[in-house]
Specification:
The complex is a heterodimer of chains A (153) and B (82). By secondary structure, chain A is an alpha+beta fold. Chain A has four helices and eight strands. Chain A has one domain: Molybdopterin biosynthesis MoaE subunit (Aldehyde Oxidoreductase, domain 3, Alpha-Beta Complex), CATH 3.90.1170. The longest helix of chain A has 18 residues. The model of chain B has no long low-confidence stretch (mean pLDDT 97). The chains are: A alpha+beta (153), B alpha+beta (82). The interface between A and B is medium-sized, with 29 and 17 residues.
Chain lengths: 153, 82
Amino acid sequence: MVSISISVQDTAFDAGAMLNDFSNENSQVGAVISFTGLVRDTPDNDLDRMVIEHYPGMTERALQTIADEAAQRWDLAAVLVIHRFGDLHVGEQIMMVATASRHRTAGFEAAEFLMDYLKSRAPFWKKEFTKSGAEWVDAKDADEAALGRWSAD
Amino acid sequence: MMNVLYFAWVRERIGVPKETVETQAETVADLVEELRGREERYAAAFADLSALRVAIDQELSEFDSPLKGAREVAFFPPMTGG
């Protein structure tokens, strides 16, 4: 039974502390992989803040579905997904995923799969506020294309 | 009665996050046609369906998906999480 933990929250989190807890809970497993996403500045370095909107209810369901799929495809002991919404500033932690597995390959692949899917299939939308105004971030074709590698086989 | 939700720029363009709609639409596309006919702000939001995604009862769906039994339909741009 894979332990799946999902949190959608507007409060900040401590990725280091979350990772330590996750590692301690899965200390018998062998490999813990984690990814933390930070708020990136604009090319002009003028990001005042980012606001992330989401679809309460669907977001949690979508993340659960993605995590369940990862747990089916790879030999995992645990999956952790944290994603924030609301106001964020440059350098703040937006989200993290972590996997615990017997072997590192499964953990790395599952973490990449989780990232690829939650970018394009979990209902979050980013809006950037800069000196020149506010704009919704456009989805990238490359993000959609990245999903293709998981369905090739 | 159906709850219709809008997110991100779709919400901004239409001006409300959520509304209840009385509709007999059989598919999402039919519902979009009805909404487009209401007011200019809907026509503007639904001008280019390739720029939009739809969820029925919180599951990603297609514009030709049937609405039979649906309680909640949401329209939004492609997602930008992560």
